[in-house]
Amino acid sequence: MILALASTACGSADQTETTITAPTSATTVLVDTSEPQLTSAPETTFVGVDIIEVTFDGSACTATGPDKVSAGVHSFVLLDLTGEGLADVRTMAIQDGHTYQDLLDLQSEPGEYIPIPPWAEWPLSTFERVDRDLAENELGKKLILEPGEHGIVVGTGKGDWFCGALRVSDPSL
Prior knowledge:
Layout lengths: L2 E7 L5 E7 L4 E7 L12 E2 L4 E6 L4 E4 L3 E3 L1 E9 L7 E7 L5 H7 L13 E2 L16 E8 L2 E8 L4 E10 L4
Parallel strand pairs: 4-7, 5-8, 7-13
Antiparallel strand pairs: 1-2, 2-3, 5-6, 8-11, 9-10, 9-12, 12-13
C-alpha cells in the first residue's frame, strides 16, 4: 500500500515535491504544476518532409496529413488493409479551373473506375524510398507535385477511390 505522507513546495514555483512512502522505501516525485505554454498554431503548409498516410480497406480510403503542401517531392504511404496487395496510391493533378468535387462527380459510386478526364493528369513518381520503415501491407512512394489542386487516389486495377483533396502551393509566392 502506498501512502502520500507529505506535500511541500520545493524548488521553483512550477514544481511540487511529493514524498510517497511504500512499506520499505521512500520515493520523491517532482510534479510539474506550471500552466501549459500557449503558442501560435503551426503553419499548415509543409515543404517536402511530411508523409501523407492513406488507409484503404477495400471499400473506402482516408488520407491523414496536411491538406496543403508546397510544390516539390512528397512522400505517400498506403496502408492496404485488403490483404490483396493490389492497391496503389497516387495523386491526380486537377487543371483548367476544375476542382476535387469535379473528380468525385465523375463517379456514380466510390470505387468505380473512371478514365482520366482531359483536365487532369498523373504526376511523376521519383521511384525513391520513403523516409521510414514500411510494414508488409504498406506501400511507400514519393511523388513530384506541381502547384494546384490534387485529388489523392487509391487505384486497385478494379477501380479508383478518392481519399481527399490536397492543395499544392507555389513556394516562390
